[in-house]
Amino acid sequence: MELYQLQEQFKKIYGRETEHVYFSPGRVNLIGEHIDYNGGLVMPCAVTFGTYLLLNVNDDNLLSFNSLNFEEKAEVKIHSSYTKDQDHWYNYPIGVVNELMKNGCRVQGVDMLFYGNLPIGAGLSSSASIEIVTAYALNEIFNCGLTKLDLVKLCKIVENNFIGVSSGIMDQFAVAFGETNKALKLDCATLDYEAVDCDLGDYVLAIINTNKPRRLAESKYNERVAECHTALAALQAELDLINLCDIDGDSLKTCEHLITDDIIKKRAQHIVQENDRVKQAAQELSVGNLKAFGKLMYASHYSLQHLYEVSGVELDTIVDYCKTDGSVIGARMTGAGFGGCAIALVQKDAFESFRENITKYYSEKIGYAPSVYNSVIGDGVRRLA
């Protein structure tokens, strides 16, 4: 949908022209999965799909939430605090308002219209995109004085405490700080980051949506977080660690006898080895070695499939196909798993045949078609008009 069409929809709903337009992208994590809540390194990038927010300040002392993606809408009076309203989409912006007010921001009545071209529940961080675009816009309009990093931390609190998902900070960080043709090598313990050149050259980033929706709060995501805490506690019996990612793969081998549960041991192995893969990936991308990076993508998926066990038949089917297609040099699931999306590096001139062939293969195996997108690496949250 074009921007002028969104503006027309806003006028149709609210009866006047919109004064402010903002955009926040979604993200894919190129490598470093389930690392963010373990204090290690991740490598996300912003994509060109995302969430648009059109808004005006009103004199009615009301927060009005409308979306072109959902039928549900809400209109609430300005209060000092709010609580989650079942599982409605507008919990995300309401949670942001709630947290902004806790930080002393004087939010007034606002008419808001959201539109996203990210597939919902596909692991591309539609929730973080909504949170960040809301926080960024309201912070600017009401002169709250918060930095972009403040907003990232604030939105993580919303996700954890208001929504109830024990996620790390990667998603919010990526959609806020993304840069065109850059991958963000982010240390989730310190929030130090490096923008790594990610020139895909003759390849494009294919995003393959399994079309199997998954809801993080209802999945085994929080269970994996708890398992990692268990692994860390076992290692802390003899090691001075704050996070699982404070050790590397070789160090884990020498002390994994401390973890007596085989399942917990596998979880720790994935986390530590995946953290090492991010370091290797940054080195390979910095010198343009895409084929070596592609091998790391495949290794990452194998680990997520067999050690961390967050993949599934749909995601595995996509990666299995990619291994047979000569135009693909790497593929893996991205996001929390249990459905959602996979990504692949595909030769530009072969993308359309790739789309056709993987759709046929997947449909025959799974019984319904995937959605296949061609994306570039884009910028983070910003004002459009």
TrEMBL record:
PROSITE patterns with a match to the protein in the record: GALACTOKINASE (PS00106), GHMP_KINASES_ATP (PS00627)
Q: Which GO terms describe its cellular component?
A: cytosol
**Gene3D superfamilies named in the record:** 3.30.230.10, GHMP kinase, C-terminal domain (3.30.70.890)
- The Galactokinase N-terminal domain extends over 8-54
Main EC class the enzyme belongs to: transferase
Q: Which reaction does it catalyse?
A: alpha-D-galactose + ATP = alpha-D-galactose 1-phosphate + ADP + H(+)
In this protein, the active site sits at D171
Q: Name one GO biological process term.
A: galactose metabolic process
* Protein name per Swiss-Prot or TrEMBL: Galactokinase
